[in-house]
Design brief:
Distance between the termini: 32 Å
Shape: globular
Radius of gyration: 22 Å
Order of helices and strands: EHEHEEEEEHH
Structural class: alpha/beta
Strand content: 15-25%
Mean pLDDT: 78
């Protein structure tokens, strides 16, 4: 995922669940993340690449033209996205600690000139914990305020009744996996 200790990885995505997964994966590897919003003009994206010492960009765009001047090797498939190794003309500033940097967000602030704001891994963790605490205090809107329990009698190899993009806990009986003998090809047996 372009995540290795101290790496600086760009994320050129809309904001689907994949963006979150790649971001958490990079953090878990000790890398920092720089959003490259799809809505930015190509010149703005190029400027971010020019100003930062990026190592990789994960892009939902299969051929991001703004990365061409910075590409250092062929891109590789990463699920439906592309992992593009890049080389920026900049190096990290001497006081910059890439191991503690989690997120670099660009903002124009009050000046109108774009500048990077660095958030540390500790700051991100504190913000996530604070958000979780707050979310436990407020009433959630429907349907998120409900938990339902459904028992289904069926074959655990067929999970077609579980909706895609939903959260489910599937519990099966361990003896079922080890004692049940399936007719025909036993290579398909899970236990």
């Amino acid at each position: 995922c372009g995540g290795e200790p101290g790496a600086c990885t760009g994320r050129h995505h809309p904001s689907p669940p994949g963006y979150i997964v790649y971001t958490y994966a990079a953090w878990r590897c000790g890398a920092s993340v720089v959003p490259l919003p799809m809505v930015l003009a190509a010149a703005e994206k190029s400027e971010i690449c020019r100003c930062l010492a990026l190592d990789f960009v994960i892009s939902a765009d299969q051929a991001p033209a703004f990365l061409e001047p910075f590409r250092r090797a062929d891109s590789a498939a990463l699920g439906q996205d592309r992992l593009v190794p890049v080389r920026s003309p900049r190096q990290h500033p001497p006081a910059f600690d890439p191991a503690s940097c989690a997120f670099i967000r660009f903002t124009s602030g009050t000046t109108g000139a774009s500048k990077g704001v660095v958030l540390s891994h500790r700051t991100i963790e504190e913000r996530i914990r604070a958000a979780n605490e707050r979310l436990r205090e407020v009433e959630w809107p429907a349907p998120y305020n409900e938990t339902s329990h459904v028992l289904r009698l069926g074959d655990a190899r067929d999970l077609s009744s579980v909706a895609d993009e939903s959260v489910h806990l599937v519990v099966t009986s361990p003896p079922y996996w080890t004692l049940k003998e399936y007719a025909g090809d036993s290579d398909a047996q899970l236990g």
